[in-house]
Amino acid sequence: MALKTMPSTGYSPPEEVLEQKLLREEVYAALMQLTAIQARRIYARFYLGMTVAEIARIEGADRRRVWESIRRGLKKLARLLDTAQ
């Protein structure tokens, strides 16, 4: 049975830490295969927690175009990550 993260100490078993590191590297590599605009928008949306409206306002772009760009980028990201396994 695998060890679970212990909230009181914050300890994570080395295997879990390695898995998380490998997953982050896979996601980063897949993000780098997207267009620069898609990667930037996905980063802003999911890593920085910005709304689509905020991204559109900052970029001076139409909100629907930003949303569609993120949607297409996520679909491509899913395909890239699916083939990586």
Shape label:
flat
Strand share of the residues? under 5%
Instruction: State the helix count.
Output: 4
| First-to-last CA distance | 23 Å
Order of helices and strands: HHHH
The rounded Rg comes to: 16 Å
Write down the overall mean pLDDT: 89
Number of strands: 0
Low-confidence stretches: none
Q: What structural category characterises the helix and strand content?
A: mainly alpha
- Helix fraction bin: over 70%
Largest sheet, in brief, is: none
Word description of this protein:
With 85 residues, the protein is an all-alpha fold. Helix 2 crosses helix 4 (63-84) and helix 3 (52-59) crosses helix 4. The model has no long low-confidence stretch (mean pLDDT 89). The chain contains 4 helices and no strands. 71% of the residues lie in helices and 0% in strands.
Short description:
This protein is mainly alpha-helical and 85 residues long. It has helices at residues 14-31, 36-47, 52-59, 63-84.
Task: Outline the secondary-structure elements.
Layout: H1 14-31, H2 36-47, H3 52-59, H4 63-84
